[in-house]
Amino acid sequence: MTQPSLLSRPALRKNLLALRRDTDPSMRQQWDRAIAQNLLVWCRQHRPASLGLFWPIRAEPDLREIYPELQKMGIQLALPLVQEKQQPLLFLEWQSGDAMDTDEYGIPVPKQRERSLIPQVVLVPCVGYNRDKFRMGYGGGYYDRTLAKQPRPLALGIAYAQAQADFAAEAHDIAMDEILTENSNLKN
């Protein structure tokens, strides 16, 4: 389902967030499992050395169930930390069971701050995405600034298929390399 393009970007973001929030939780859980399986297949095919994850907020796809499995595959995991506004994200090494804190936004982050890394691949949660693989986030630009740095990690947008929308990319937007949804047809 593609959302109408007549809306301003803030209005479209608001509608997409409402659509995601209002989707039946059991349906979202079903979609989460499908996205998680697609991510596992992708990781088996591409064998990334490190993967920047995200902790789900605001009804984002919840992939935490497979984080231990990714770790068992030998992938170094990391979670993002907002250090300062208008700056790229810092990714902190993390594995399931590590001590956690919450950041100023209330998002869980690793308690340790000494071991950071630049992930080879970053999972990027999407409020929306378009046919050209540009994503719409919450409007802070953290992922765009992170992807603008060199070396640039491979960016996998993570979204529900219903988040596909018709919108123009802005000058600072950086396209995702791939978008994984519950409908991505990845084969083992």
Walk me through what this model shows.
The chain has 188 residues and is of the alpha/beta class. The chain is 26% helix and 21% strand. It is built from 4 helices and 11 strands, in the order ααβαββββββββαββ. It has helices at 9-22, 25-46, 67-72, 142-148, and strands at residues 50-52, 76-81, 90-94, 100-102, 108-110, 116-117, 121-125, 128-129, 135-136, 154-158, 178-180. Strand 4 and strand 5 (108-110) form a beta hairpin. The mean pLDDT is 93.
Characterize the biggest β-sheet: 7 strands, mixed
Overall pLDDT level: 93
Number of strand segments: 11
Q: List the secondary-structure elements in sequence, H or E.
A: HHEHEEEEEEEEHEE
Ranges where pLDDT stays below 50 over 5 or more residues in a row are none
Indicate the overall shape: globular
Tally of alpha and pi helices = 4
Q: Kindly name the structural category.
A: alpha/beta
From the alpha-carbon coordinates, what is the Rg to the nearest angstrom?
16 Å
End-to-end C-alpha gap: 27 Å
Indicate the proportion of strand residues: 15-25%
Q: Which sequence of strands runs across the widest sheet? A: 6-3-2-1-7-10-11
Into which percent range does the helicity of residues fall?
25-40%
Task: Please tag this protein with its features.
188 residues, alpha/beta, seven-stranded mixed sheet, two-stranded antiparallel sheet, 4 helices, 26% helix, globular
Q: What's the SSE blueprint?
A:
Elements: H1 9-22, H2 25-46, E1 50-52, H3 67-72, E2 76-81, E3 90-94, E4 100-102, E5 108-110, E6 116-117, E7 121-125, E8 128-129, E9 135-136, H4 142-148, E10 154-158, E11 178-180
Parallel strand pairs: 1-2, 1-7, 7-10, 10-11
Antiparallel strand pairs: 2-3, 3-6, 4-5, 8-9
